């Protein structure tokens, strides 16, 4: 597992790649406002290949497709 302090040394920005994330907030009846996250799948649903970082807890998000706004991309990824 990589800590946040180490992640910046490993993860590099991809030039020219635009991405978007959705940060859904819901009200839990006991805990109050909560942020909804997801767990990375073991297998890529598009390619069938094993996912890197499988099992990590992450926000909903991904690359913006051509002709798509960042809002549309975030909503698509959330869906």
Summarize the structure.
With 79 residues, the chain is α+β, with helices and mostly antiparallel strands. It is built from 2 helices and 6 strands, in the order αββββββα. 20% of the residues lie in helices and 25% in strands.
What separation lies between the terminal Cα atoms?
A: 28 Å
Tally of structural domains: 1
What is the chain-wise order of helices and strands? HEEEEEEH
Q: What would CATH call the class?
A: Alpha Beta
Radius of gyration from CA coordinates: 15 Å
CATH fold type = Nucleoside Triphosphate Pyrophosphohydrolase
Q: Helical residue percent? A: 10-25%
Strand order of the largest sheet: 1-6
Q: What would the principal axes of the Cα set say about the shape?
A: globular
The CATH homologous superfamily name equals Nucleoside Triphosphate Pyrophosphohydrolase
Number of separate helices: 2
Q: Calculate the mean pLDDT score and round it.
A: 84
């Amino acid at each position: 597992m990589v800590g946040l302090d180490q992640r910046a040394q490993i993860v590099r920005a991809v030039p020219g790649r635009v991405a978007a994330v959705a940060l859904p907030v819901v009200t839990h009846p006991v805990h109050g406002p909560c942020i909804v996250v997801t767990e990375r799948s073991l297998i890529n649903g598009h390619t069938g290949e094993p996912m890197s970082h499988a099992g990590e807890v992450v926000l909903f998000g991904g690359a913006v497709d051509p002709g798509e706004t960042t809002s549309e991309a975030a909503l698509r990824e959330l869906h």
